[in-house]
Design goal:
5 strands; Ubiquitin-like (UB roll); alpha+beta; RnfH
């Protein structure tokens, strides 16, 4: 049976999205490869916002998100803002 999956990569000021059809069992890695989006710059993957591994098995209608690396540590950024008042 075939499933449809959306693969999304969102960078600042740019969003790329592709919908792919894959045979079951399909994984995150297979979906990214089928979408043709370069996953090399991704810091990780998520399915509907939940962290996922490349071997995670997908279901029909899932949305795979390519995560970008953090530019700053969120905790440190909050500390700096708190110090400034």
């Amino acid at each position: 049976m075939a499933i449809r999956v959306e693969v999304v990569r969102a960078w600042p000021r740019r969003v790329e999205s592709a919908t792919v059809t894959l045979d079951e069992p399909a994984t995150v890695a297979a979906a990214v490869a089928a979408a043709g989006l370069d996953g090399a710059g991704a810091a990780g993957y998520a399915v509907f916002g939940e962290r996922a591994e490349p071997a995670t098995v997908l279901r029909d209608g899932d949305r795979v998100e390519l995560l970008r690396p953090l530019l700053a540590d969120p905790k440190e950024t909050r500390r700096r803002r708190a110090r400034r008042g």
